[in-house]
Amino acid sequence: MIKEVFKKILEGKDEGPEPKTDYIVGVSTGMPKEYPTPAGRIGYAMTKGVDFIELMLEHPVAMTKREIDEIKMIKDKMGIKLGMHAGFDAYLTSPYDIDYTNAEDQLKLYIDAAAKIKVLYIDFHACVLARPRMYSIPRRYDILLDENGENIIKKITKKTPKLWEWFVKEGIGGGRGRDHIENHFPGDIRKQMNELERKVYRKEIGEEEFVKKHEKLKNKGIEKVIEHFKKSKHNQPWGDSGIESYAFEFMGRWMAEARDPLWKAYCGRKGYEDADEKNKVAAVSAKYVAGHLKKHLEKMEEKKVIIALESPDARGGQYAGYYRLQSSVEIYKLVKHIGSPYVRILIDFEHEATQGIDPMKDIKDAPGDIGNYTITLHVGTIPMPAHAHAPSPRGDVYIYELVWRLRKKGFKNGVFIFERGGYEAPKLYEQIVITLKDVAKYVSMDIPPKELPEEYFGMTPVEMEHEKRIVDSHTFDPLQGMLELPELSDTWLGGEAIKKKGIPVEKWKKEEHR
């Protein structure tokens, strides 16, 4: 018998005692000090009873060739699947030249690294920055780019007259100070305007003619200034002193006037002035993220690498609730707009809680197809603003209901990850893997939260029957000492066992109902 069992296991015919479900349960490696290398982290996480591991990789070049070979060997020999959590240095929502360039480099390197060890997805936080106006002083000063990495001034055309007008009036205020656009006019235009002013002063021309000719020269000068600044990526009136709050207003005004699909997704039919600040920032942020990812879609499809955009945590709490993209619904709008199976949503319920979002309400109010675009959930205990990433106990109904509601909105299969936080082993994983496997099992059976069986709460049918017998045996306890008849504390079987076998009363009582 034992030989037959081992034969099945070795031949891969035995699937083990765990039932097949629609979801894979995994854990993240975290960044434990005792396991600083990627392969070491995977080896540690493998001991937690899962088939899927999310590798935390702070930087895409952190894996040497030896590390890559070792990870591939572990995957092949142990039959595990991998995901990858990127670091937090890719500022996908930033208009600054240096941030944009760095984000592009990070994306390229992470996609290459992921392809080498064949991970299912790379997890990027959708944003790691608060809204631009939340910073008391600008984060930095730099050249300002659009979503394509081009000079932001290229957005100004005759098709966007409102943006043109605003730029002329306010546009040179994109840097540390303010300036007048006339100061940037070519020399010949300035010379003609000065000559015109002298003529009107000498009364050689009338005021009406002066205004008409002056306006014509000014418009010509503005057009030449704008065309001049469009010639080079780094050619801007404010030099390298641009600030991102100005860039966000610039891009928002352009999106509103151009009726950009992402503007409609976040702000509806409202113009720039009427839209809510939160939605304006989300729309512009989504435009930048989409701009980055669209550049890499072809490579992602070629290498079969998915990028999952995760709801960010309010790290430190200083800007909680004021991040550029923070809820699963905001990320959903972006992912749906991109429209590629290689860009998906990763929902971290606890991260949402740190932003002041109620995860249950967020899922209830979410569009009916949000689950179709979701690949992974980071789940632990009941989401809390403290960002504990604590393990959940057996029978956690709140977590189950979150997943169940998301399943009703299209999340028919995917990955559950317990993301390692501040808890130290061995308490870290003591119940959470079992809990998540129970969630996967019963939610795959479409059992509503209020109809969960006792087994979900950690009680087997045998244990339930045992508990019931113990309760039944104490049915008449309230009547003890109130009857004139002799009271029998043992059953007939128990009495015989005590008298004939000499079994101690205490031992019999422990084993009586087993």
Report the major sheet.
Answer: 8 strands, parallel, barrel
Structural class, please? alpha/beta
Tell how many strands the DSSP assignment holds: 8
Strand order of the largest sheet: 1-2-3-4-5-6-7-8
Give the amount of beta strand, in percent: 5-15%
Roughly how much helix do the residues carry, as a percent range? 40-55%
Indicate the overall shape.
Answer: elongated
Low-confidence stretches: 5-10
Per DSSP, the total helix count is 18
Whole-number mean pLDDT: 85
Give the N-to-C terminal Cα separation: 27 Å
Order of helices and strands: HEHEHEHEHHHHHHEHEHHEHEHHHH
**What Rg do the Cα atoms give?**
32 Å
Overview of the structural elements:
By secondary structure, the protein is of the alpha/beta class. It is built from 18 helices and eight strands. The chain has helices at 2-10, 38-45, 65-78, 97-117, 161-170, 187-201, 207-230, 244-258, 261-267, 277-303, 328-338, 349-354, 359-365, 397-408, 432-444, 461-473, 492-500, 505-511; strands at 23-28, 52-56, 81-85, 121-125, 306-310, 343-348, 374-378, 414-418. The protein has an eight-stranded parallel β-barrel with strand order 1-2-3-4-5-6-7-8, surrounded by five helices. Helix 2 runs parallel beside helix 3, helix 4 (97-117) packs parallel to helix 10 (277-303) and helix 9 (261-267) packs antiparallel against helix 11 (328-338).
